[in-house]
Amino acid sequence: MRYVIPGGSGQIGTFLARSLRERGHEVLIIGRSSDDPALRWDGRTLGPWAEAIDGADAVVNLTGRSVNCRYHWSNLAEMMSSRIDSAEVIGKAIARARHPPRVWLQGSTATIYAHTFGEAHTEAEGELGGREPDVPAYWSYSVHIARAWEHVLAAADTPRTRKVALRTGFTMSPDPGGVFDVLFKLARAGLGGPFYGGAQYVSWLHDVDFVNIVRFLVETEELSGPVNLTAPEPLTNGAFMGILRKAGGIPFGMPIWPGVAELGAVFLKTDVELMRKSRRVVPEKLLDAGYTFHMTRWEDAAPDLVARWQAMGRGEGST
């Protein structure tokens, strides 16, 4: 199969492309800094790159400014424009293709759901966020970005191409720069205790499952619209960090409370929403369609990720 991955040079796109190529698939990465001029784009304008989409089996759009940043207005505006502009122009490229792809998998996020400590969100019954009481007002902008992102996908005039919105949780991979890499380094530095009391839920996904789900969605024609990409068993932040420390042989983790969290977020150039918001999301559509998870329990996934992280030569003495 030919997979075209706009925005595929990031951490998730890198391991997705690597795994697909190992399975014998052709993978083309469209990006701003592509070595191939025919695959280079600005993320908003039709150009020669659109020819790669014509005749492809699947498009997986992962374009978008990283959410691992400070949530001031210029970054939020860039997060919005990079997602909306790229999705709109990909829709135009698919619409004009003589042989459009069978499926368009569009990046989205589990952050679209409301902050909750109650029942888990499913695709059918999950409550979208943006109006929760007692949370910082700026959190609503992340939800607004996600909803606008999915609106562009739904509105695209691509009748011959099935469309799926990937509502993805924290995707855990030992590769540099991802959320697991950051959290495990914090734990190794003694900062792996619960965040804000640790009662908020973490919806996570093992990297092998991310790849397998992409392949499953390409092959499963009855699946369309929003699909939750999370492991079936979300758990609280306190339990999540405790299991991570145990997997890494780390005896202690300092709890991270307000003030310390904000200071650390400034130092790491990120935002506390990423770990403070309670994301309790389950993959009902995948389970109903018969997908079998590689990793369902964080108790199994964490040791695997730690071992792979260490096998990459990033153990003692690494940073």
What is this structure, in a nutshell?
With 319 residues, the chain is an alpha/beta fold. The protein is built from 11 helices and 10 strands.
Explain how this protein is built:
The chain is α/β, with parallel strands linked by helices. The chain has a single domain, classed as NAD(P)-binding Rossmann-like Domain (Rossmann fold). 39% of the residues lie in helices and 13% in strands. The protein contains eleven helices and ten strands. The protein has a six-stranded parallel sheet with strand order 2-1-3-4-5-9, sandwiched between helices. It has a two-stranded parallel ribbon with strand order 6-8. α3 links the parallel β3 and β4. α3 runs parallel beside α4 and α7 crosses α11. The longest helix is centred in the N-terminal third of the chain and has 24 residues. It is globular, with a radius of gyration of 19 Å.
Distance, first to last CA: 38 Å
Q: List segments where confidence is low: pLDDT < 50 over at least 5 consecutive residues.
A: none
Q: Please count the beta strands (DSSP E, at least 2 residues each).
A: 10
The string of secondary-structure elements, in order, is EHEHEHEHEEHEEHEEHHHHH
For the record, what is the CATH homologous superfamily label?
NAD(P)-binding Rossmann-like Domain
Beta strand %? 5-15%
User: Which CATH top level class fits?
Assistant: Alpha Beta
Q: Given the helix and strand composition, which structural class is it?
A: alpha/beta
Number of domains: 1
Largest sheet, spatial ordering of strands:
2-1-3-4-5-9
